[in-house]
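hi support,

uploading two proteins for the ticket. first:
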Amino acid sequence: MRAPRNLPFLLKIYVLAGSVIIVAFAIVYNNSLIREMERESRSTTRLFSQFTAIGLRQLNDAENQTFIRDIRNAIEVPFIMTDADGRPWLWNRQTGLSTAANEHERIGKFNPAAPNDPELERVVRRAAEFDRMNEPILIEGQGFTLLLHYGPSALTRRLAVAPYVQLGVLLVFVLFGFLGLRAVQVGEQRSIWVGMAKETAHQLGTPLSSIMGWLAMMREELPHAGAPERLAKAVDEISTDVDRLSKISARFSKIGSAPKLEYLELAPIIEETVDYFERRRPTLKINSTIAVSLEELPVVRCSRELLGWVFENLMKNALDAIAGEEGKIHIEGRTNKRERRVEILFSDTGKGMSPGVRNRVFTPGFTTKNRGWGLGLALAKRIVEDIHGGTIRVLHTQPGKGTTFLITFPVD
């Protein structure tokens, strides 16, 4: 049984949906536990408060004072007990307020309507804060009426945050998993392209060596055979193209290995590329004009062969975009002294790119042509950015209005 073609996509959806379900279940389950704890805390606090209220009627009894103190320390829920007039009689340390030993002597002198004790006034304000969180509990007994004001316990607050901590941890896990998967995929793609490039160089090596040998024999025989000058010129052109193929094979062989970088001028590399295409105008059916305007550029640390490949790819793309019409290709070189870099602009008046094509133009395997593997610009990006520490991007493009690529190289 064959696996579906979209299996990686289905696996991502499965992992994402599973993660969402797990987090949702954890949040719902934790919230139910929190509500259950709140109900138990409310019931326990109310029960203890009723016992405490009975003891509050006999504050002068030492045993009652010990009993009240023990209950107050045992309740983990922050609470404040007030009488019907709003006078606070008892609270615990979980409220964050002081519980002095002589508090009961001060309570009798405290008037909630005209507060004269800053500490007890803070207790009253805290009770009002608790009332905004939970409705106070009325405790009635024989000869007394009290109100119990309470807030969330420290454990309840921590549990309330727990689902969101879990969600954050899961999101971080999914993010790093996605980045790791993406890095593995990119690494696999690069390995495939490197392997294909080296194999291409290996396959080209044998026939190129043979052709170069035959061309050498033809050059030796031409003077003796009385061949016309046109044939001799054709042999020279073939020899030039074979040398070009040898350079291309050498470029492929260097993919994946650390190239030797030297301090070179970019102008000769660009001019050599332009001259190559100018000499082949008739065979390539180039009707467009190629204009070059280069300032005096500083030397940059680069590989002549690899940059020549980049410039050739951009030139070919420009020619394909013009598609045999009478367009214009303009290559401009300038120095950005403020950012200490050299900028090369490749512009054409061709068909331009749509936003979708522009976003994917450097993706390996993506091409809008009927033929080709879609590796030219992807390799150009790798050569410029990974090997030379520069940048390459589409500066601007518009369907029917042409495209401009901007390449930058750092200046040491």
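and the second one:
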Amino acid sequence: MSGIAIVEEKALCEAFHDDPRWVALTKITASAAFVRAPRLCQLLEYLATQTLLDRADQVTEFELAFEVFDRDQDFNPAADTIVRSHLARLRQRLLQADLGDAKWIPSIPKGQYGLVFQEVILPLAETPEPRFIAPEPQVPHTPAQTVPQRIALYKILSVVLALLLVLAAIALLHHSALVDPSPVAIGASDPLWDRFFVPGQTMTLVAADSSLVLMHHYLHHDISLADYISGRYRQKAEDLYHSGVEPSGLIDRRYSSMADLEVTRLLAEISGAKHMPMRASFARDVTMDDLKQNNVVLSGSKGANPWLELYEPQMNFLIENDYPRNLTVVRNRHPRDDEPKEYNGDIPHVPVTYGVLAFLPGIEPSRNVLILEGTSVAGTESIYDLLSDKKELNRIIEKFKNSDGSLKHFEVLLASESVDGSAAKFHVVAFRAYS
């Protein structure tokens, strides 16, 4: 932006500071929900500025990354989800904020970057028109309606009313029992989830360590499981500092994607519906014993969850970072028929993302592992969408059932369109079934 354009935009910004929408915004950023979240305030004010300048439709994820989050020209939204995660937090925080007497209420529609201001219209006080009030008819007093008799009548009516309320409550409870509040609609028997939620065991979710993805961006190679377990990867981060690169907080902070949050919520719903315990662990906190003793769900590709390295030898569809070509691909180890050897999720102007759902034996034969990984965050979201759709999930896993109804181990490769970093409708590209 030229110097003249910057001066003009600054003048416009100062001009609308008396705008009632901006005034309402300043009250919101001073509220308890925002006063300790300066980055969210900065994001909100930037979006408000662009909205009031009538350029909200021109704001992009890249612009927010540069202007608000200090990212450089190498920003990769598939690997760095800081913009989408903060937008999700901002939407939630706006719903929780105490707006007080604000005359304008801002919101951020999903899939958009512009604010929408809704004016609070207070109803006008109405003066009731004079009206004729008919006198109440006089009920002749009958000697039979003595005070004790009326009290007895009221007691009878109270008992009848209480009985009706009890019957209504029973009917409501019965109706509620028929309606499963969980969107997953867990059934009495689930071929897949019954292999993970087992009496006497605790199912373990291993959430991705997304900070590794940021390190790989500078290192140009993945971190091995051996380096991850031993902690040697910390030295690699320190080497980056010494070379002048400052990917701040990579060693000490813990980042995970919004897709992992959705997976955690899904598994918590299933755990509650089945009354079986589960535990969510960050990848850095997991030990080999955890993987041996429990049924495990691994979220994220190997670049974000090095524990996947243990299971890749038995997999056909491998998601790999091709650093020389700056691509993330799905390698098809044993192509069938017309299948390609490689599925490319980074073709320019072709917004396709891939996800792999793999149900495999665990390190101990009596245990199982479910792998959810994608060529991007949107690819992992496509796996979540499948697991959330009970009808579609049952239709797919029907292909992998034995004659006795038990479930074979399998892999499914999904493709979906990536719209603004999120997965749209998915479809099955290829699959493998194992005896």
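thanks. also noticed: The longest strand covers residues 422-434.
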